[in-house]
Amino acid sequence: MHFETLAIHDGQTPDPYTGSVTVPLYQTSTFERPSLDERGEFFYSRIGNPTRSALESTLALLENGRHGTTFASGVAAMMGALQVLKPGDHVVSSLDVYGGSYRIFEQLMRPWGVETSYAASEATESYLDCIRPKTRMIWLETPSNPLLQISDIRALAAIANERGIVLAVDNTFASPYFQRPLDLGAHIVVHSTTKYLGGHSDVIGGAVITSDERLHHTIRNYQGAAGAIPGPWDCWLVLRGVKTLKIRMEEHQKNALHLARALEKHPAVERVIYPGLASHPQHELAKSQMSGFGGMLTIALKSGLPAVRKMLEATKLFIIADSLGGVESLVASPALMTLGPLSREEKQRRGCTDDLVRLSVGLENAEDLEADLMQALATI
Ligand SMILES: *Cc1c(COP(=O)(O)O)cnc(C)c1O
Fold it and tell me: Ligand 1 mean position to 265 CA, how many Å?
């Protein structure tokens, strides 16, 4: 069946008790046991809840995986995926990763005995150079945040499989509608469901999807034991979001491409980074592993930080905010906001320069959005 049909039907069959066509909100902490010696499928909501189960099976189906496990946030989901490691293990991560992922590697995993090396996101050889005998995981974010670099999932899956390394992909930017890493050979997919999957900027959540039974067992066990679970209401909101993922992603992409083309012609803009543009250095690779390019777009302004400040303060429709993937358009300065806590050297190493502006292109009318950006650029 097609993606949009799965998103609406699978994992979300009508409630057997009442016939409710939407999955009911099981806002309960516990479930009556049939008898003292038996328990049903559900008994305590940290371990399992029907609303959460519906979301977990839906997300697994959309990623073409066997098992989904949800968490209270994207970073909690990442911690879930990292439980397959133990002290002494080594990780190779793409260099351009979400600031919170970098913080987990450096501030939580390193003191715990798991070291991470960073490879140039767009160069497969760079990952090879970083691999050590103790490397147990390759962690990719593709397209990456904020530089929208593309890592070659198929090539890295081959490298990982040869060496018994787990390949994990943060698929938040593309969403399963545009990219399915498990089909390309990855072992684990991680999402911040806060972004496109939820899609309405009204919930924080995360998910891990895998088809590997052993990996799933570890991650599922951690979910119940550590307890960073999403509540039923949050699961319900993400389930509702997922039903419209296809039409939202198509529109996000259409608007982003429209703006990317308009911005490419603007004299104040040094460069436009969007994987859907032929000018993107990895446009061909993006086309080979994605069925679309999403709604995230980054530009560099010719006159640097002063111009960035002016532009961000002048936009009227684009809201200055840290998140992404919602129906409303958001604008951010990666150097000042999402990667603000990093030192100047760390930012420089990652290519996160002061002149960058990151746009999460929403679902407003493309011409209204273009007019807003043009008037904001006219103030610099
Ligand atoms: C937002 C984000 C995360 C973290 O998710 P939270 O839900 O904020 O915890 C991880 N990876 C990427 C790419 C993100 O954009």
Answer: 31
For 169-210, how does the pLDDT look when each residue is reduced to its tens digit (9 = 90+)?
A: 999 999 999 999 999 999 999 999 999 999 999 999 999 999
Asked whether 98 and 142 are in contact (CB, 8 A), the reply is: no
Show the domains of the chain with their CATH numbers.
Answer: 3-242 (3.40.640.10), 246-377 (3.90.1150.10)
Contacts of 103 (CB under 8 A, 6+ apart): 341
Report the side by side order of strands in the sheet with 269-273.
269-273, 296-301, 356-360, 330-332, 319-320
What are the tens digits of pLDDT across the range 246-279?
Answer: 999 999 999 999 999 999 999 999 999 999 999 9
Output the average pLDDT for the chain.
96
- For residue 14, is pLDDT > 90? no
Say yes or no to pLDDT of 338 above 90: no
Return the best residue to mutate from 195, 203, 229 for the ligand 1 pocket (most ligand atoms within 8 A of CB): 195
User: What is the torsional sign of CA 313, 314, 319, 323?
Assistant: negative
To test the pocket of ligand 1, the residue of 172, 323, 330 to mutate (highest count of ligand atoms within 8 Å of its CB) is 172
Q: Report the Cα–Cα distance between both ends of the chain, in Å, rounded.
A: 50
Alpha helices in 213-301 (DSSP H): 213-226, 232-242, 245-264, 283-289
Token pair in block for residue 247: 């039409």
Instruction: Tell how far CA 7 is from the center of its chain.
Output: 18
